[in-house]
């Protein structure tokens, strides 16, 4: 019999969440570096370079790889011979570990969890509660899998109840392009097959937490049908040409992981959950001897990569920019932004648009005239930081607000990640604005370009408040130009045709 002490369990959860906030798994770094080495698309290669540089900076500085530090998911296998020396329930112990991790003064993590999700959506302040799944198994240990799942990738989760005769490959190839780039490829696709609807989703989530080994599988060859399916999907999904950040390229997924479970004869449940470029998970076992000890990786595990966009990039002074200046910007062009920009996410946009609809004016200190709005909810700063990690959130979520913002504010454009939908693109074309992207998964690197930051409005919204940033050489890419041409539409088609394994859909 093993005795698991309350403090050991809480400390292990807290330490693991801190650990995965700034250390990528070694297999992920190796796979991402391999993708960087073979990538032929300049835009995608630069995006991967930023992700790798950001990852090393975070390992050195022990700061989050992404501003979205996730919703905590924990899978437990509790041995039948385990005894707990604890006053709190297992779930309460996990939540106390989350609370300590996310409020750690040396590495504050962003609180993103909202209570009353269908109503007032009030931030809980400490990222609790976690989502916990428990299983009682033979043995005298507690096996723990803990992940911090980003909202952008979680939002792209898909499920289908296929007919038994339907092709899983066809469904995946039809579905992945509909996910866009909001899940920050390249990453991992977790697929769950079988069981019931909820079981398939759990299998897909657990698959996301497995190690990357597709190259080893390719080298030795498949031993069963699931491994054959992994190889087929890996090859065909990458042949879609979506590429890093949706910019077109050779690598969209680093691996495809599949878990299955017996199912009813009338059903074929299939779930797909992507894990993003900020993949965060840890695995440990408690046996009663004390808290888990996660060994820090060696910095030699990270490749040394340098990038200099200065020679080919257009330098932009945000403080003197006019509408005429942006008219010749082209999709795929790299810009280095310097000057003042404002921030805003979903909650701030809704509040502003509600004011417009009531014919009311925003607070006097919010002036978007000839400015850009950056879709970001930054991490709180620590020590001498101006701001914590401050990477982009998914621009697509702001599509329904874009027409009103461009109509009422004098904005020149927006900065986020991922593609814009038809509604936003039409508004951008109509108002001759532009949409830019920063690299998702490079939040700490982006924060290095921010020289000054202050909250100027809606402070009650927490990380969703409107900030004023002063930036210097902040790297971005033109995603949608003033004519409404989108790189997220044109580039994947181009690279799908170059790869040449899947017919290009033109309608």
Give a verbal description of the structure.
- The radius of gyration is 23 Å and the shape is globular.
- The chain is an alpha/beta fold and 507 residues long.
- The protein has 3 domains: 145 residues, no CATH class; 127 residues, 60s Ribosomal Protein L30, Chain: A (2-Layer Sandwich); 178 residues, Fe-S hydro-lyase, tartrate dehydratase beta-type, catalytic domain (fumarase).
- The strands form 5 sheets. Strands 14-15-16-17-19 form a 5-stranded mixed beta barrel.
What is the averaged pLDDT score?
A: 95
> What's the story with the biggest beta sheet?
5 strands, mixed, barrel
CATH class of the largest domain: Alpha Beta
The residue ranges in which pLDDT falls below 50 over 5 or more consecutive positions are none
Number of helices: 15
Instruction: Kindly state the number of beta strands.
Output: 19
Q: What is the helix fraction of residues, given as a range?
A: 25-40%
Strand order of the largest sheet: 14-15-16-17-19
CATH architecture designation of the largest domain: Alpha-Beta Barrel
- As a percent range, the share of strand residues is 15-25%
Overall domain count: 3
- Shape type: globular
CATH superfamily of the largest domain: Fe-S hydro-lyase, tartrate dehydratase beta-type, catalytic domain
How far apart the termini lie comes to 64 Å
Q: Over all CA atoms, what is the radius of gyration?
A: 23 Å
Q: SS-based structural class?
A: alpha/beta
CATH topology of the largest domain: fumarase
């Amino acid at each position: 019999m093993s005795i698991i002490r309350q403090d050991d369990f809480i400390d292990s959860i807290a330490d693991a969440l801190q650990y995965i906030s700034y250390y990528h798994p070694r297999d992920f770094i190796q796979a991402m570096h391999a993708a960087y080495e073979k990538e032929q698309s300049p835009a995608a290669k630069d995006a991967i370079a930023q992700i790798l540089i950001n990852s090393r900076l975070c390992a050195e500085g022990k700061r989050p790889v992404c501003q979205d530090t996730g919703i905590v998911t924990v899978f437990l296998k509790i041995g039948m011979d385990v005894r707990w020396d604890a006053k709190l329930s297992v779930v309460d112990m996990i939540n106390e570990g989350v609370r300590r991790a996310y409020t750690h003064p040396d590495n504050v993590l962003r609180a993103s969890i909202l209570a009353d999700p269908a109503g007032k959506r009030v931030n809980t302040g400490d990222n609790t509660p976690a989502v916990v799944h428990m299983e009682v198994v033979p043995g005298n240990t507690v096996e723990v899998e803990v992940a911090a799942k980003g909202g952008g990738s979680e939002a792209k989760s898909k499920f289908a109840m296929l007919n038994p005769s339907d092709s899983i490959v066809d469904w995946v190839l039809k579905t992945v392009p509909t996910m866009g780039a909001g899940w920050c490829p390249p990453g991992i696709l977790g697929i769950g097959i079988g069981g019931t609807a909820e079981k398939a989703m759990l299998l897909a989530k657990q698959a996301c937490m497995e190690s990357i080994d597709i190259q080893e599988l390719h080298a030795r060859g498949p031993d069963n049908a699931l491994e054959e399916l992994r190889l087929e999907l890996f090859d065909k999904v990458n042949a879609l040409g979506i590429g890093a950040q949706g910019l077109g390229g050779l690598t969209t997924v680093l691996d495809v992981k599949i878990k299955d479970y017996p199912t009813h004869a009338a059903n074929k449940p299939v779930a797909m959950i992507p894990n993003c470029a900020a993949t965060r998970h840890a695995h440990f076992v408690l046996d009663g001897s004390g808290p888990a000890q996660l060994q820090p990786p060696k910095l030699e595990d990270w490749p040394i990569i340098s990038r200099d966009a200065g020679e080919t990039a257009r330098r932009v002074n945000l403080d003197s920019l006019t509408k005429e200046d942006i008219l010749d910007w082209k999709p795929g062009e790299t810009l280095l932004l310097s000057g003042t920009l404002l921030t805003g996410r979903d909650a701030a946009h809704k509040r502003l648009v509600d004011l417009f609809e009531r014919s009311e004016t925003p607070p006097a200190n919010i002036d978007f005239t000839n400015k850009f709005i950056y879709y970001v909810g930054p991490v709180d700063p620590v020590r001498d930081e101006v701001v914590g990690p401050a990477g982009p959130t998914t621009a697509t979520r702001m599509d329904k607000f874009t027409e009103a913002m461009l109509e009422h504010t004098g904005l020149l454009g927006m900065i986020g990640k991922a593609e814009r939908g038809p509604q936003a693109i039409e508004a951008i074309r109509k108002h001759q604005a532009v949409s830019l992207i920063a690299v998702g998964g490079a939040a700490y690197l982006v924060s290095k370009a921010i020289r000054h930051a202050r909250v100027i409005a809606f402070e009650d919204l927490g990380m969703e408040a409107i900030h004023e940033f002063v930036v210097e050489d902040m790297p971005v890419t033109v995603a949608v130009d003033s004519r409404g041409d989108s790189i997220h539409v044109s580039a994947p088609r181009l690279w799908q045709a170059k790869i040449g394994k899947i017919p290009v859909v033109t309608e």
